[in-house]
Amino acid sequence: MSVNQATMNDDVQPDPAALAEEPDGGKKVGPKKAADRTDMVGKALGLLVLLGEEPRGASAADISRRAELPFSTTYRLLGSLARDGFVDYEPDGRRYHLGLRIFQLGQRVSNHHGFAGTAMPVLRRVTAETGEATILSVRDGLHHLTVSKVDGPQIFRVTSDPGHLGSLSTTAVGKALVAFAEDGEREKLLAELPLEPLTGKSITDREAFRAEIAQVRRQGYAVMDEENEAGMRAVAVPLLNSQGHAFASLATAVPVFRLDLEDLIAHVPLLQEAAAELAARLPQR
């Protein structure tokens, strides 16, 4: 999508001088200027990450504040990203969203890791047996990232779509990823992971969370009972590499009115069978 920067007004006007191109004049770029440009690439990528956390989009001023960058710099970077399709601009609401180029690149990454071609048939098979949504996630820093999902035939739909970044501490997929992480990484997460209270049932006490993760390791699966979203529960199992560490997790998610916790946990053997198949076929990160 090509966007005319003259239409990208926000609640703060950019400094025209800051929007001008660098006066290189075709001269050889020195080490300092090359480093500055590399830094600008990093800043642009940082803006994309911030936009990825804003499903409804954000204004240039909001992004500037969150990125702790001058407004003029943010405005210019967003204009460049919009010109190349990485960002879309919504004139009516003066908000920016991730563009289709990001979706295209994400699809290529998904295909490279086998999530589309290899994982989807397995997820569909699990959903056909459970009648509920099946979700495959990987860890992305302090979050879990949904990489594949198959919805069940029911009208009520799980909202964790591919590309969604979610909490590690309040979700079944997240707990499974933490519980079966490499030992040193697990200890670091147990000590430093933010324990955000997303609902009244979220675990916010550090020792209680540590006990929860120990239980997940003992039983081989994790549950979420309205800790991440009121009215929803889920059960998840890890996908283990040859060292016994999780590189992904697989979950069945349901609304609470359709399955109680005991009936949901009854799906664990099916999930474990599917996880073992996926672990043998997917590239292990």
TrEMBL record:
Domain HTH iclR-type: 38-100
GO terms of biological process kind: negative regulation of DNA-templated transcription
Keyword Transcription: yes
Biased composition (Polar residues): 1-10
Protease recorded as keyword: no
Keyword tags: DNA-binding, Transcription, Transcription regulation
Region feature Disordered, mapped onto this chain: 1-36
GO molecular function annotations of the record: DNA binding; DNA-binding transcription factor activity
Annotated ranges, domain IclR-ED: 101-284
One Pfam family this sequence matches: IclR_C
Protein name from the UniProt record: DNA-binding IclR family transcriptional regulator
